[in-house]
Amino acid sequence: MGSTSRKGKSKKGKKVRVAFRRNRAKPPRHKDWTRLAKDAEGHELDAPDGEQLVAKGDLSRRRTIVVHEGGDLPPNLKRGTVVAMRGLYANVDDGERMLPCTISRVLRTRLIDERNPVTVGDSVGFRLETRNGHTAQDGVIEFVAPRHGELCRRSGRRNQTIVANVDQAIIVASAAQPAPKPHLIDRYIVAALAGGVTPVICMNKIDLDSEGVAAAILARYEPLGYKTLAASASSGSGVDAVGATLKDKSSVIVGQSGVGKSSLLNAVQPGLKLQVGDINEQLDKGRHTTTTATLLKLDFGGYVVDTPGIRSFDMSAVPRNEYEAFFVEFADHVPHCKFPDCTHTHENECAVKQAVDLGAIHNERYESYVRMFEDPSVKS
Fold first, then answer.
1. What is the model's pLDDT at position 274?
2. Which of 72, 131, 153, 109 is nearest to 377 (CA)?
3. Average pLDDT of the segment spanning 317-333
4. Are 151 and 169 contacting, i.e. CB atoms less than 8 angstroms apart?
5. Contacts of 119 (CB under 8 A, 6+ apart)
6. Domain boundaries, position 364
7. I want to staple 56 with a disulfide (CB 3.0 to 4.6 A). Which of 60, 74, 104, 159 is the partner?
8. Where are the alpha helices (DSSP H) in the chain?
9. Whether pLDDT at 23 is above 70
């Protein structure tokens, strides 16, 4: 690192005080009195002269570190892209090779709202490990560049970024086996828009849509300005349109288990040879085949992240008072609500509810909003 000025700034970064998680702090007192008593072997055990009963406060969980503003890579680090995550280990592509990397302790223990400090799609800075004077074939991630285009959900008490730095989210549902879940589609749309990602709705297994249910769902979104795709990985119908949508873009493909996300990608680019699963016919639910999000390079240009299927999507990462902004059909009606803080769920003289009654807003889209607003964590 460069020399440091009086104000604490280096030529390549600036010094800041940051908080760390509690488990980084040293325990305030011993909790092994039973073992100490047994070790005394009948002798009198003297109490300690002094003991710290509480931690030193917030200062015991804060450190001064050097941070780098913007996307500038710190000196002595190599740049790479995270293509897969397995626990606290990441596969990083530096443009020449794939390297397994751990995450530095500083990144792992900083007190942040994220479940994981590094995710698939991140642009990172890493240093190569050195052992016995030789450069090893693995590294340690020490820097994460600012993100754009994130898809996030709530996981436990913290937010989980499923993927970062993508342009669009291909939200895949299936016409049948399993049946489509419009409410889950709406949750993905809100999460995508909240993270600055363009949603695209894709209905797979369209050849099974004998009653036109899937086509009607797609027709619900087309007037709202969302791009829609109808495809069949098995018959090849619509696969070219899916490929054209992915071309030269950074995309993430999401949806519940069993809708055929991996099958669709295999049809778009057969060389990927992604593992595919089957359907539990009794439950009409897919079996988990993809177990971790993986960044894949497309031969015709662009990247796509294949993600594990999920059956529910916790929306708590997005504030509830922002949901109305992500239901684009509400926009023209919200200014006409009687109350400025109208939630559009129970209030009288709500212009959004009136638009639903008049058919200007699709009833199921409105019900989806209400379900999301009343319980963001409810299963889809």
1. 86
2. 153
3. 95
4. yes
5. 82, 85, 161, 162, 163, 164, 293
6. 324-374
7. 60
8. 33-39, 105-109, 182-194, 213-221, 239-246, 261-268, 351-357, 363-374
9. no
Q: Which of 271, 306, 341 delimits the end of a domain?
A: 306
Domain count, the chain: 3
Structure-block tokens of residue 371: 């379900």
Of 233, 260, 242, which Cα lies nearest the Cα of 178? 260
pLDDT in tens, 216-234: 999 999 999 999 999 999 9
With CA atoms as reference, report the closest residue to 160 among 369, 310, 287: 310
Neighbours of 367 (CB within 10 A): 14
Which amino acid makes up residue 25? A
The predicted model scores a pTM of 0.78
| 120 and 256 assigned to the same domain | no
**Which strand (E) or helix (H) includes residue 134?**
strand 134-144
Q: Beta-carbon neighbour count of residue 283 at 10 Å?
A: 10
C-alpha to C-alpha distance for 214 and 260, rounded to whole angstroms: 15
Q: What is the pLDDT of residue 10?
A: 43
Q: What is the mean pLDDT of residues 248-272?
A: 93
